[in-house]
Design goal:
161 residues, alpha+beta, Rossmann fold, two-stranded antiparallel ribbon, disordered N terminus
Amino acid sequence: MAIPAGTSASARTRGGATLAIEAHGLVKTYPKEVRALDGLTFGVGPGTVFALLGPNGAGKSTTVKILTTLAQADAGTASVAGLDVRAQAAQVRHAIGVVAQRSGADPMATGRENLLLSGRIRGLRGTGLVRRADDLLSRFDLGRGRRVAGAHLLRRHAAAA
């Protein structure tokens, strides 16, 4: 659902529900005047399956980085789950889950080591971090120190389902 520029806030709903993702006039320029986004505006209703499609350099990854708070737009506004991605970045990160094209996991680290790293990135510390990592390893029957490739984990749990 594209939202024309200048649309009022009250019109930015679908079926009375606030949009799950909203972008208005997003602009992002990289060094050497590479303009990745030039006024991007769109809205996604709750429960909608949405895809960003386009050729290399069209701004898809830049848009995702802005919506997930990994980058800031030079101009424009965006919200996810009703939260402003600039002003409420921590709350946005807490409300969403993102699976990147390439894993951020260290293939030489154990599952536990990768979970501990992910937990630290999300702000967990101390015994709470260790307890959460151990709980997840136990829940998915992965053991405490095994070195298992991510793809193997996915195949193992998909076969069990």
